[in-house]
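Input record (Table S2, row 246):
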Amino acid sequence: MARAARSIVTVADPDELARAAAARLMARIAAQPGRPAICLTGGSGPTRLFALLAGKLGDAIPWDRVHWFIGDERFVPADDKLNNMAAARRAVLDARAPAANIHPIPTDAADPDAAALRYQAELQSFYGADALDEQRPLFDLVLMGMGPDGHTASLFPGAPALEETQRWVVGVDHANVAPLVPRVTLTLPTLASCREMLFLVAGADKRAMATRVLSGEPLPAGRARSNGETVWLLDRAAMPDPSDGH
Ligand code: 6PG
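Output record (6-phosphogluconic acid complex):
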């Protein structure tokens, strides 16, 4: 699979961003006749998208075939309000997806790294191999957010997890930003193993960091790339100002 250049798509506002993300997600599902695998993101970025999928638009999804994963998790119980997959479950998955198609990171493990190893085994079992083949992506779509420090998933600037090349999933003992709980995160090569990586970035408070990342600073959100297509979906408020040198 040839790595495509990163593309930037601008929309008017968070509602349009959710509609554009839903259209891309539906297209990826439609293009996969087998078991479409979608890797969700935490944070506030996907909230409106989840609401759309829970509504009428979701009627067109072949729910029995689609599998749902998560790119990172806060190391808190499965029903904690900070748990990323719990938010996705509450918003849409529990009402729509068969339980066997929902793949949360198990936070009942002894520690974050033990949870990471268990999730790695689950991903490898779904993929059917323990080494990633560039010609055969693990995920059809990986959703991503960008944090205020330029992190993505739970890959924080300067963290050793960013340099991981062997492990698919790792434990992260210290988060750089709130909530300051340990995390579990997929690594860059695992996240890269997808047909499309789609960043959801909205709001004026993201603009300065989006400008830095998209102008080439090697922050985690900039280093995260798909082996296929990487798309940044930004609303107008988050869009870098061309006069900032972008
Ligand atoms: C998490 C997320 C994280 C998130 C960014 C952006 O667990 O916190 O997965 O990587 O995507 O921090 O979050 P917002 O969309 O809430 O700004």
